[in-house]
């Protein structure tokens, strides 16, 4: 999966290592996130959803196509609200199989790698179904608290922990 | 200049090609620009200033340090208006010698490469002092008109061309 584009560009762009290029691109534009939303149908009352995404102005979506090709997964869709398009992967299994290994081999060189590591840790917990238990969910909330410090937070960690702790009691 | 960091990271990060990584990063975050401002002390009445820059949240400025190391030039300064830091090169000679060659060898894979090409073209004209002539300035304005389509324009191309045309007449 890694070398489709490298081969395609072997002529005029032989110098570029596509995997490194994409890591650099994601260091700037990528988003490694975990959302936690209320969901009354679940036993713990909260749904945990991991995602990896990158947005770009629609007029130069080339790198999103490149990401989809390289990672062999994800969807690209227009944001109706503005002129951007977004490449996104939301499947736990696909994030673990296609995305995380790339960022182990080609890690981000800024502090954003901490978000990658945190996402990987949450995904590992989810793969063991721990997000369905109160204690597992509390562990996930603790990890997610430290992610994307400059981003917006759509949930209050203490609210979640409070509601889950009541459940345990 | 290219391999200082590659060597430093040779242990844990042997997979990463720093030059490709930086091109990917600049594809997302970099800005290749030419500003044209009124300057009555110059014969043509307008000053042309090329620049290459990249901004980042101050909490993760690692890639800016990496860029300064890799390109062997530029300055990093805080933006007092927000929490970002910016790496920037404004010297015509340094842009031509240290920056443009990198983006020839490791071109951006999105349409932003057109900005790199346009900047290089303007720099070549400036190196021949053509920005000091009415005809040269008009050529530069024509090139700059097509750059950074999603950015803000601080000058009106027609105003510049009008004022320079009067001068030629």
Plain-language structure description:
Two copies of one chain form a homodimer. Chain A is of the alpha+beta class. Chain A has one domain (4-168): Roll (Endonuclease I-creI), CATH 3.10.28. Chain A contains seven helices and four strands. Chain A has helices at residues 4-8, 18-29, 62-71, 92-105, 113-127, 134-145, 157-168; strands at 30-38, 46-57, 75-78, 84-89. Chain A has a four-stranded antiparallel β-sheet. In chain A, a hairpin with a 7-residue loop joins β1 (30-38) and β2. The longest helix of chain A is centred in the C-terminal third of the chain and has 15 residues, at 113-127. The A-B interface holds A 9, 13, 15-29, 56-57, 59-63, 66, 83, 105-107, 109-112, 149-150 and B 9, 13, 15-29, 56-57, 59-63, 66, 83, 105-107, 109-112, 149-150.
Key terms for this structure?
homodimer, 169 residues, alpha+beta, Endonuclease I-creI, 4-stranded antiparallel beta sheet, 4 strands
SSE layout and pairing:
The structure is a homodimer of 169-residue chains.
Chain A: H1 4-8, H2 18-29, E1 30-38, E2 46-57, H3 62-71, E3 75-78, E4 84-89, H4 92-105, H5 113-127, H6 134-145, H7 157-168
Antiparallel strand pairs in A: 1-2, 2-4, 3-4
Helix pairs in contact in A: 2-3, 4-5, 5-6, 6-7
């Amino acid at each position: 999966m890694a070398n489709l584009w490298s081969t395609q560009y072997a002529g005029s762009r032989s110098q570029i290592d596509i995997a490194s290029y994409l890591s650099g691109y994601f260091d700037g534009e990528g988003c490694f996130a975990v959302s936690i939303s209320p969901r009354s149908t679940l036993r713990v009352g909260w749904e945990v959803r991991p995602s990896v995404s990158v947005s770009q102005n629609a007029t130069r979506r080339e790198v999103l196509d490149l990401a989809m090709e390289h990672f062999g997964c994800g969807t690209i869709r227009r944001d109706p609200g503005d002129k951007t398009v977004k490449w996104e992967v939301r499947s736990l299994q696909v994030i673990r199989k296609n995305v995380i290994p790339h960022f182990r081999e080609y890690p981000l060189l800024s502090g954003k790698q901490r978000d990658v590591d945190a996402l990987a840790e949450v995904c590992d917990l989810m793969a063991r179904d721990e997000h369905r238990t109160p204690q597992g969910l509390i562990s996930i909330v603790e990890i997610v608290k430290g992610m994307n410090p400059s981003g917006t937070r759509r949930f209050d960690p203490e609210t979640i922990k409070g509601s889950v702790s009541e459940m345990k009691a």
